[in-house]
Amino acid sequence: MDRHNDNPPRPLNDAEAAHVRTWQRRMYAYFGLAMMVIFGLYVAAGKYGDSPTARWLVLGGVALLVVAATFVQFSGRCPRCNAYLGRQARLVLPSKCRVCGVEFPRP
Fold it and tell me: Is the whole-model pTM more than 0.85?
């Protein structure tokens, strides 16, 4: 799509809107799960923190969360221009795509 076009892009159809809403729900679900895992790691570190193995397991768990967060964050793409949504906003769906300008409807 031409970025210099003065005409606003046509609205997303139902399938395209469902695609971006699914990405947003996945982001919220991952965030909730990550917070529960971090809390569990915190409790485990408090109970078994003297053990070097426990420390490495906590660090490994955090590293896995970071890798998974990166994957989930950059798995969503704009249905029109295929730009990564994760580069445009963190955790929430942006109001519109910064590349093609299409607006993302709110439920």
Answer: no
Nearest alpha carbon to residue 80 among 5, 32, 10 = 10
With both helix axes pointing from N to C terminus, report the angle between 14-48 and 52-73 in degrees, rounded to the nearest 10.
170
Query: For residues 29 and 78, what is the distance between their CA atoms, to the nearest angstrom?
Result: 20
Q: What is the DSSP letter of 100?
A: T
Distance between CA 31 and CA 84 in Å, rounded? Answer: 18
> What is d(CA 104, CA 107) in angstroms, rounded to the nearest whole number?
10
pLDDT digits (tens, 9 = 90+) for 33-46: 989 988 988 888 88
**Contact (CB, 8 A) for 74 and 87:** yes
